[in-house]
Write a structure and sequence with these properties.
The termini are far apart. The chain has 126 residues and is of the alpha+beta class. It has helices at 3-10, 67-85, and strands spanning 11-19, 22-30, 36-47, 53-63.
Length: 126
């Protein structure tokens, strides 16, 4: 049997959650004994300075005997977070009204910086 055919047989049911640079894959798979288990894969995209990119993946295997305890703890943890912090995202990278702070146009003082060695040119001068 070819590898692709084996993978198709192995994957029973799948869902994907795209979340910015992260993607979560939820897959029901089959064991050799024809029982089911779940894999949860986080794939995160990293972009290099040259524009190329790569993905880092982390996978969790969740077997039926652990479903009830896993679900109970996951429910407890998500409930705790939502009750204590609400649903609004408070990370500065994800705030709707987040404005990146830039350095001011003030002349640097001798205490915190030396005078720049570049020429100040307006865009209109070019």
């Amino acid at each position: 049997m070819r590898e692709n055919e084996m993978l198709e047989k192995d994957e029973i049911f799948s869902k994907v959650l795209r979340a910015g640079r992260r993607t979560y894959f939820f897959d029901v798979r089959s064991t050799k004994a024809d029982d089911y288990y779940i894999t949860i894969t986080e794939s995160k995209k990293f972009t290099e300075e040259d524009g190329s990119f790569h993905f880092k993946k982390h996978k969790i295997y969740l077997y039926k005997e652990d479903f009830a305890a896993f679900k109970e703890i996951l429910d407890e943890m998500t409930t705790f977070v939502l009750e204590n912090k609400g649903e609004e995202v408070i990370s500065e990278r994800h705030q709707k009204d987040f404005k990146k702070e830039f350095a001011t146009d003030e002349e640097p003082t001798s205490e915190n910086a030396t005078k720049s060695s570049y020429t100040d040119i307006d865009f209109d001068d070019i």
